[in-house]
Amino acid sequence: MRSNAISLVMLALLSPAITVCGAQGSYRPIPWQEEGSAGRISSVAEVTVPAGCKYTGRAGVPAVLEATHNLPDEAVAGILVCQTPDSASIWFVMYKYDPSGLVRDTDKDALDADKLLASIKEDTDQSNDERERRGWDKMYVTGWITPPFYDQTTHNLTWALEGISSDGESSANRSVRLLGRGGVVSAELVADAAQLANIVPAFDKVVEATHFVAGQTYSEWRQGDKVASYGLVALIAGGAGIAATKVGLFGKLGKLVIAAALALKKLVIAAVLGIVAFFKRIFGKKKKTTAQTAG
User: How confident is the prediction for the chain on average, in pLDDT?
Assistant: First the structure.
């Protein structure tokens, strides 16, 4: 298994389009967009790819989901993968779009965190049968990191959950729902729970760089446009249950592939014991070279 993973890393590093191994052993390319490009989210929104990140749209989503042990989801419109500067932290943002219509925010003062958490846990537990069938670890939501809150100025709904897999590996999902004229863009941050506090500022900047295109903003809704049949409470209860299940932990193999994708054009061949050790070696060399140059 370890030799196969190393070979996969080498293939990924040497290919202009990062590849992953599918369930049947076949390799599929992932078309990545680089820093500064506009990553399209369905036809209604886009994100400007930040430094240290790569974005893939619908064409690359199935391969990334499989590599990171996430269940297939046709609603996913794009995935942004990032490496925190001067750090071994790898995290990604999963984008979806639901054309359900304008979500009224009249229930913004009725966000009961305890009731919502109970519903989310139940939905997450129900999905574990499918994860078990695929031979993946089960996942469990353990609690809120940040209870739900709504920003009336940006029309963004935000919360953060902590979870754990059946093998004891922790994960954290920070979720943002961007409300628009015709529906909702969801941005799900997936990171190691221990690194979440350090990553949130960078994620918040990603959210700021994510916007609806002209004609699709919340304020551009007009009488006669579609209105969603649910409000903010249902948006959290339904969306968070799915997100906590489907965007959980990096698979072991997925970590190696993502690391290769973010190797910043360096041809690194190493017996990788873990993602943290891998990046410590890479960035340790960079820091040493910088120090020598400065001296």
Answer: 75
Question: Residue 9: exposed, middle, or buried by beta-carbon count in 10 A (0-12, 13-18, 19+)?
Answer: buried
CA of 20: how far to CAs of 4, 64, 270, in Å? Answer: 12, 8, 18
* In the chain, domain spans: 2-294
Of 104, 107, 90, 43, the closest CA to residue 250 belongs to 90
Q: Distance (Å, rounded) from C-alpha 178 to C-alpha 205? A: 14
Tell me how far apart the alpha carbons of residues 138 and 98 are, in angstroms, rounded to a whole number.
26
Instruction: Determine contact, residues 57/40, Cβ cutoff 8 Å.
Output: yes
> What percent of the chain shows pLDDT beyond 70?
69
User: Which of these, 11, 91, 56, 13, lies nearest to 282 by C-alpha position?
Assistant: 13
pLDDT in tens, 205-233: 999 999 999 999 999 999 999 999 999 99
C-beta separation of 71 from 65 below 8 A: yes
Give pLDDT tens digits for 247-271.
333 333 334 334 444 443 332 222 2
Whole-number Å distance between alpha carbons of 176 and 277: 31
Dihedrals φ, ψ of 73, to 5°?
A: -150, 105
Q: How far apart are the first and last CA of the chain?
A: 43
